[in-house]
Write a structure and sequence with these properties.
heterodimer; A: about 260 residues; alpha/beta; six-stranded mixed β-sheet; four-stranded antiparallel β-sheet; 8 helices; B: about 425 residues; ten-stranded mixed β-sheet; nine-stranded mixed β-sheet; about 20% helix; globular
Chain lengths: ~260, ~425
């Protein structure tokens, strides 16, 4: 398959008449890791959910394409089957459905009718992925996220990402509530997929996770827009100077205009 | 006779009842006549959330066809224990000879009347004249099974009871009597089914179950009647010392279903567990009541119900756990949960505890809520269609209860019924 490309152009989105995204543009290609940083309430999670097609959000202007195809008209499951993945900030708990059974159904949903993964192949891949992520094999037979700690849920998201092998992954605050060991595991998971067939958009509040997943591009998002983009150094600078610095810069340039 | 409750008189009933005089004892005839008179006088059951008046049940043709000859094929036939009714009248019975020789009785109730101590049990748990429907059943019953299991059988006995509703009939009244002697173990699987037919049908099915000391019974029932059925299913049990009864109930069919199961724990050590799974689709209306009565110390009850409501269906589940004064050391629990898959579906779960004794454990929990939209988004974000996601959530919701059904065949049938309801209705 060709190198993936997720292109967001001038995206406007609102919830119940309230504008949240106000002309956001960025492009993630295979082989690239992008990070979006920004203060709370700036629309980062809304962006992630909009890209995945959450019904609550209405796109009012702009385009989102995956490999050139407009995905804003697609249902969430279609986007997923085309290779988009969202590791959620607050994954749902699904009672009565084991992680293993769910993953198998999700893998089969991508493979199409009559081409189901064999139980043996599935088990082998699952065992390997869980070992890689230092997960207790018992997790596979526990109900999906039910009674999981915050850290366990995030690890489970990464496990799903490894099993589903997306082409573009969006990781929404995957580092929140994690201790440093867990962040390392998350980093290991993302890095293992790195390559021309995989691109990632890491949404985060803190610079910490970027010590373990080196971004190629860092974007700063304020008030529903990307206001500044740069290389990995931008994240370090932001960490040092704080979001106030970005706001002041913005105010200055607005004054000049 | 195409008479309905609107057109029928006492004479209509009398004529129908007396036509059976040749095949049943005098006491049965007298009970039927008294119940007939009561059925014209009494009201339909009063259910707070299920107004029966609107359903115009008294416009359904009432008097079932019935053969005036006793059933002939009563020879023990097969290796399995089973009674199969097709329509209200035709019955096949299968009972291994070896078990018959050891005193096990399995026969249509109407044929047991002259040979077995039916009078001792019939109507002692479910009254003949509680309301219009119990009175109609007592007056007009034709189908149903009498089962007596002698005490101390070393091996567990598995029995299948089937009623397949006749497409031509518009009324069927049936009743089961089950008596299990000391220390014996019985596993009953009852199936209520029926295909075809257009006219509405009144179906009333009552089971009275008696467990002697130390007996153990699993009573499974899967109800998949057609939509045209207006069903009333009553089940009552009385349990002696250290006996254990499990109700395993799957309610899937019938346009209207008023169902209850009631257990009287009569002596120390008696225990009961009940699992009810229900699934409503389309316009189905289901009204369930479950009651556990602790009349003696050290008795135990555990009631679990889970339901899924789809389309414009409607359910009510009312649970009652009652612990009498003096029933110290008893333990009564109940938990009811309903999941609604559409905005138009409605479900009520109404738990209650009535405790007159201090030294007991009692707990209840109930919930009824819509399917979690966030969960649907989560599952679809992994590539499952919305339909698959919904099915997965329903499976997950019902799995803890259906997988708790200890009878393998019944468990599989319950899953099949769920699958059909999810995909087709």
């Amino acid at each position: 398959m060709s190198t993936p490309e997720l292109a967001i152009h001038d995206l406007h989105m609102q919830i119940d008449d309230k504008p949240i995204l106000k002309g956001l543009s960025l492009t993630v290609k295979g082989g690239e890791i992008h990070a979006i940083m920004g203060p709370n309430g700036t629309g980062k999670t809304s962006l992630a959910q909009t890209l995945m097609g959450h019904p609550r959000y209405t796109v009012t202007k702009g385009q989102v394409t995956l490999d050139g195809d407009d995905i804003t008209v697609m249902r969430t499951d279609e986007r997923a089957r085309r290779g988009l993945f969202l590791a959620m900030q607050y994954p749902s708990e699904i009672s009565g459905v084991t992680t293993a059974n769910f993953l198998r159904a999700a893998i089969n949903a991508r493979r199409g009718e009559g081409n189901n993964i064999s139980l043996k192949e599935f088990r082998d891949r699952l065992d390997e992925a869980m070992r890689f992520l230092d997960m207790d094999p018992k997790f596979a037979n526990r109900y999906l996220n039910e009674g999981f700690s915050g850290g366990e849920k995030k690890r489970n998201e990464i496990l799903q990402m490894l099993m589903l092998k997306p082409r573009i992954a969006i990781l929404d605050e995957i580092d929140s509530g994690l201790d440093i060991d867990a962040i390392k595991v998350v980093g290991k998971g993302v890095n293992s997929l790195k390559g021309p067939d995989f691109g990632a958009l890491i949404i985060t509040h803190y610079q910490r996770i970027l010590d373990y997943v080196k971004p190629d591009v860092v974007h700063i998002m304020v008030d529903g827009r990307i206001v500044k983009s740069g290389n990995a150094n931008l994240a370090a600078e932001l960490d040092k100077k704080g979001y106030e610095w970005v706001r002041n810069e913005l105010a200055k340039s607005a004054g000049q205009a | 006779m195409a008479e309905t409750l609107t057109t029928a008189t006492e004479d209509t009933f009398r004529e129908w009842i007396q036509s059976r005089a040749a095949i049943e004892p005098q006491w049965v005839q007298e009970r039927r006549l008294a119940a007939a008179e009561a059925s014209l006088r009494l009201d339909w059951p009063k259910l707070e959330r299920t107004p029966l008046k609107k359903r115009k049940l008294d416009q359904i043709s009432l008097f079932p066809h019935h053969s005036l000859q006793p059933v002939k094929s009563m020879e023990p036939t097969g290796a399995q224990l089973s009674v199969r009714w097709t329509g209200g009248d035709t019955v096949e019975v299968s009972l291994p000879e070896s078990l018959a020789e050891r005193g096990l009785v399995l026969r249509p109730l109407k044929d047991a009347l002259n040979f077995e101590p039916v009078q001792q049990y019939l109507g002692t748990l479910i009254g003949d004249q509680d309301d219009k429907i119990t009175a109609l059943n007592a007056a007009l019953w034709t189908a149903g099974t009498y089962l007596y299991v002698p005490p101390h059988l070393p091996e567990p006995i598995a029995i299948s009871l089937e009623i397949d509703l006749d497409a031509e009939e518009t009324a069927l009244f049936s009743r089961n009597i089950v008596v299990v002697g000391q220390g014996s173990r019985v596993l009953i699987t009852e199936r209520l089914t029926g295909d075809g037919g257009h006219d509405r049908m009144l179906f009333s099915h009552n089971s009275e179950v008696f467990l002697e000391a130390g007996a153990s019974v699993q009573f499974g029932c899967i109800q998949q009647c057609p939509d045209r059925v207006e069903g009333f299913i009553h089940r009552q049990a009385q349990i002696q010392n250290d006996a254990h009864l499990e109700w395993l109930i799957g309610e899937f069919g019938a346009g209207l279903l008023v169902g209850d199961h009631v257990t009287h724990l009569k002596a120390p050590g008696a225990s009961t567990k009940s699992i009810t799974v229900f699934f409503g689709t389309g316009q189905q209306h289901q009204d369930f009541t479950a009651r556990s009565f602790h009349h003696a110390p050290y008795t135990k009850s555990d009631m679990v119900a889970r339901g899924v409501m789809k389309g414009r269906s409607r359910s009510v589940f009312t649970g009652l756990t009652q612990i009498d004064q003096g029933a110290r050391g008893s333990d009564g629990r109940q938990k009811e949960q309903t999941l609604m898959l559409s905005e138009e579906a409605r479900a009520d779960a109404i738990p209650s505890l009535l405790i007159d004794e201090r030294d007991v454990y009692a707990a209840h929990a109930a919930s009824a809520g819509p399917v979690d939209k966030g969960a649907i988004f989560y599952l679809t974000s992994r590539g499952l269609t919305e339909k698959e996601a919904e099915r997965m959530i329903v499976h997950g919701f019902l799995a803890p209860v259906i997988d708790g059904i200890p009878i393998e065949g019944l468990r599989a049938e319950a899953w099949q019924a769920v699958e059909r309801k999810i995909t087709h209705d």
